[in-house]
Amino acid sequence: QVHLVESGGGLVQAGESLRLSCAVSGRSFGSLGMAWFRQAPGKEREFAAAVSWSGANTDYADSVKGRFTISRDNAKNIVRLQMNSLKPEDTAVYYCAARRVATLPTKAGRDSYDYWGQGTQVTVSS
Q1: How far apart are alpha carbons 83 and 38 in whole angstroms?
Q2: Buried b vs exposed e over 91-106: b needs ≥16 C-beta within 10 Å?
Q3: What string of pLDDT tens digits covers the 126 residues of the chain?
C-alpha cells in the first residue's frame, strides 16, 4: 500500500502563490509516477500535473501550463506543486495521486493512478 498526505492548501487572493506538498510512504517512492489532480465544487476531478520517477519528464493541463510547476524530491519522498499567478477558477480540492508505473501515463486521467490522498483545499478569492 501507498499512503499519501497532502498539505499546503489555504486561502489566497488572485495573483498570489501557494505550494502544495505530498508526503509519500509505504512503497519505494522512486518506483512511482506522481500527479496532482483537482476537483472544483460540482465538477469532475481533473488532471493538473504529473511527473515521472526521475523528475525529468512532466505533463501539465493546458489550464495550468506556465503557472504551475510539479517537482519531486526522491530523497525525502515528497512531491510538490508550486502554483503561481493563481486565479479564482483554480479554487478546488487538490489531490495527490501515485501510480505503480514510474513513467508518465499515455492518458493523463484518473484511471491511470492507483493511490490517492485525502486532498487539500485551495481557495482563490478575486
Answers
A1: 13
A2: bbbbbbbbbeebebbe
A3: 899 999 999 999 999 999 999 999 987 888 899 999 999 999 999 999 999 999 999 999 999 999 999 999 999 999 999 999 999 999 999 999 999 988 888 888 999 999 999 999 999 999
Which residues, 6+ apart, have CB-to-CB distance to 126 below 8 Å? 13, 14, 88
Cell numbers placing 13: 487572493
Single-letter residue type at 103: T
Backbone angles phi, psi at 52, to 5 degrees: -80, 175
**All residues at 6 or more sequence positions from 20 whose CB lies less than 8 Å from its CB, including other chains:** 6, 7, 8, 9, 36, 80, 81, 83, 94, 96, 120, 122
